[in-house]
Amino acid sequence: MPTLIAGAVAVFVLYMLLQMLRTANPVLLARAVKVAGGILALATAAFTGLKGEFWIAIPIGIFGAGLLGWAPFGVGLSEAYLDRRFPGWRQHAQGDAAGRSGRAAPGKMTDEEAYQILGVKPGAGRDEISRAHRSLMKKLHPDQGGSTYLAARVNEAKDTLLRTHRS
């Protein structure tokens, strides 16, 4: 009988934990998983190091420190790469963190802005706009290592310019 009660309590506790997980804030959940993973990795590294297997403990410890934000040497390298590859990534990331895209009026791209994004001259024809769009998308599409933000901006620029050609 005690085993049956313990099993029922375990099922109830598991159900409640799954309900909390289902309704949890994704940002807080991600942070909690990151911290818990970092602590677990550091504990594993310490235990493995105490056993004398440093060749395993060191990489696990570095990974755990990185999860906890204690490994600044990798951040600078990543930031330098992003600065070179996507010059506007910082503004985009700051806009997303604040819950907005960083633009004053989303969906209101001007023709001038669209021409600048696609790199075509004002008055360009439909074919030239399509070629410029296709060329940029080959470089900026998320499947090619680009970002969804940049791909969306290029698509918006094409739509803005082609809309003016329709009317």
| Total count of helical runs of at least 4 residues | 8
- Apparent shape: elongated
Using only CA atoms, what is the Rg?
Answer: 25 Å
- Class computed from helices, strands and strand pairing: mainly alpha
Please tell me the total number of domains: 3
Number of β-strand runs = 0
Mean pLDDT: 82
Query: What is the H/E string?
Result: HHHHHHHH
Q: For the terminal residues, how far apart are their CA atoms?
A: 79 Å
Tell me the helix content: over 70%
Which regions contain 5 or more consecutive residues with pLDDT less than 50? Answer: 100-105
Q: Which sheet architecture does the biggest sheet show?
A: none
Range of strand content: under 5%
Write up this protein.
- The structure is a single chain.
- This protein folds into three domains: 2-70, no CATH class; 71-102, no CATH class; 104-166, Orthogonal Bundle (Helix Hairpins), CATH 1.10.287.110.
- Helices cover 75% and strands 0% of the residues.
- It is built from eight helices and no strands.
